[in-house]
Amino acid sequence: MLEVIDNFVPLNIVEDLQKTMLTGSFPWYFLEDITGNGIQKRPAMMHYFRTTDNYQSDYISILDPITNLFRFSFGNDYKMAQARSFLQFPLGYKEDSPDSPHIDFNYKHLVLLYYVKDSDGDTILYDNTSITENSSLTEMLRVTPSAGKAIIFDGEHYHTAMQPVNNTRCVINFNFYKD
Questions:
Q1: Is residue 27 part of a domain?
Q2: Which end of the chain, N or C, is less packed with Cβ atoms under 10 Å?
Q3: Domain of 77: which CATH number?
Q4: Residue 29 placed within a domain
Q5: What kind and span of H or E run contains 87?
């Protein structure tokens, strides 16, 4: 399962999301390292819309157009495990290495990555569904963020992002599963 969809939502939804999320009133929370491993030390901001323990943000309803389109295309039997947004800033790094590759959950799920704004900081999707100490990653797809674009893929595939160099990168990461 792999789909890249330009203009996933209508332009007025793209603009509404940008206006809501990229203004001073939206609650972003500091992450010391977006990679989660504490090694790369790439600070960013995050917002949880929904967590696996049923926390729900006051802003969850702004995701309705995206989740409705997803369910219309893939079926109403998909449940949202979590939804979170990441805001990454250019950090002036000289290295050109991606963030640590990862999978979001160790069970069957679909990932929907929605790009809130145009940016650099490509998303990289790997062909690998497992990584061992001696394995190498095989790049399957690289997508440059563009406002309104979405990628939907099998969540068992490792994925990551490049650190943005020129622009702020903002994505919403959804994880859906079937009962």
A1: no
A2: C
A3: 2.60.120.620
A4: no
A5: strand 78-88
Neighbours of 107 (CB within 10 A): 11
Asked if the structure places residue 28 within a domain, the reply is: no
What is the total count of domains within the chain? 1
Tell me the pLDDT of the chain averaged across its residues.
Answer: 91
In a domain, 31, yes or no: no
Domain range for 7:
2-22+42-178
Cβ neighbors of 78 (< 8 A, separation 6 or more) are: 70, 71, 110, 176, 177, 178
Sheet of strand 159-161: strand arrangement: 139-143, 123-126, 159-161
CB 47 within 8 A of CB 85: yes
Q: Is the pLDDT of residue 96 over 80?
A: no
Residues 108-128: pLDDT tens digits?
999 999 999 999 999 999 987
Q: Which amino acid is at 147?
A: A
Closest among 26, 24, 29, 33 to 46, alpha carbons compared: 29
Task: Say if pTM beats, i.e. exceeds, 0.90.
Answer: yes
The candidate with the shortest Cα–Cα distance to 83, out of 176, 153, 155, 158, is 176
